[in-house]
TrEMBL record:
One of its GO terms (molecular function) is GTPase activator activity. Coiled coil: none annotated. PROSITE patterns: TBC_RABGAP. InterPro entries: Rab-GAP-TBC_dom (IPR000195), Rab-GAP_TBC_sf (IPR035969). SMART domains: TBC. It comes from Coffea arabica. Residues 79-330 form the Rab-GAP TBC domain. This is Uncharacterized protein isoform X1.
Amino acid sequence: MGFLMCKEDNGLGCLMKNSASVELDSYFPVRHQRQEDVPKTRFKPRVGKTLSPRRWNAAFSQDGQLDIAGVLRRIQRGGIHPSIKGAVWEFLLGCYDPNSTFEERNEIRQRRREQYAAWKTECKEMAPVIGSGKFITAAIITDDGQPIIETSVNGNLPDDFGGKPSDNGSADKRVIQWKRSLHQIGLDVVRTDRILVFYETEKNQAKLWDILAVYSWFDGDIGYVQGMNDICSPMVILLDDEADAFWCFERAMRRLRENFRCSTTSVGVQSQLSTLAQIIKTIDPKLHQHLEELDGGEYLFAFRMLMVLFRREFSFVDSLYLWEVMWAMEYNPNMYLLYEEPNSSCQNGSQKINNKLLKLYGKFERKNVQTGWTEQKTALAVFVVASVLETKNKRLLKEAKGLDDVVQILGELTGNMDVKKAVKGALKIHKKYLSKVNFIITRVLSAALGGCICCGYLSAAHHHSCRPRNHSCIRLQRECFTIGYILQQA
């Protein structure tokens, strides 16, 4: 298959595969012996809906500014053509400002490549296996910082590949922790997307390992956690330059890193599971009650879906399609500025939102802005899980007699889910959820002011105006006071 180089002066900086290919899966070929293990791909590029290479190139002005509103509309309707996914993802994830020029993006790209090279050099000094084209799959260091001589390495390496101990026989705690994670990264790398021809070569596996190892050092607060390999892998495949793939992954982790924050008592994704429980409880209390009776009220059966963004539930191609549609719908035009300048006016909410600016938001985020829910930060993925549960509502209520049944019913979705239907259902649930929650808040605020939910008067003396609903009016007011009291005590 042929490759076309994107023009570097266009600021795209990626390899584009020949878009004349007929078979979509040929962009991500599967090993012949694993063909039967692959879920069927449902996504097909559609003329007039999918963001095509021609439409993508036409979206740039002469100096390189991107018509992000037009791009988002296309992606939300039909995804992105495989030949340009890498370049488009960089914008969706906030690597670049759509208002930047070709020249400005080239400067940013070069600066980031240099930064990545510096971090990689720093890591290589601690563990020379970094950047060698090899990777490790067994521990190289003990808990007290002493190197382990015998270890499993893909290929021959010098004796000091694991680094040298410090003069006092111990190493810095952070260095020890990082080195102890390297073999786990290696074990996960050899299991990552192994059905794909791309990872038949040790070179590509080592590239994924290097990025994850450097990221683990760069983000010492989170480090490496299993599942990051599944998030990073598509970036390695889509972006030819290792540094570009690293920064794309880093931006994706800005959204997801809290899911990977682990402690001895909890995992970060539990926060999203709690939100999922609240959503189902609000929109489908009967299903939520049934799951609670099955001891599934914590929704741990959805753990994997949220942790690796449905990588197991869809084919490789369909999972990428789902990601880009979700990112397009969650798109915030201030994303780049928020990442680069956290203390900007966009962060503190002082920026005014008008109709023109609203068009630059993705469909999901636009709804949040319009309803004032920008601080909640609930990912669209949580609503996608809710959508999946709702599609199996009847079966779960009728057939699930235990958590094993819930897991089995949801497991049958693998390879049988339609991305467009799942996302469409998620948007409907999002709208319904916001409507219900806002109604409750309205009642609470009305009650707090001594008002009436029916007639809107703040004085009880005016309740006659809402007759014949006055009795209902008073009942609702009492409920409002009760809800308000509960919220105050929370």
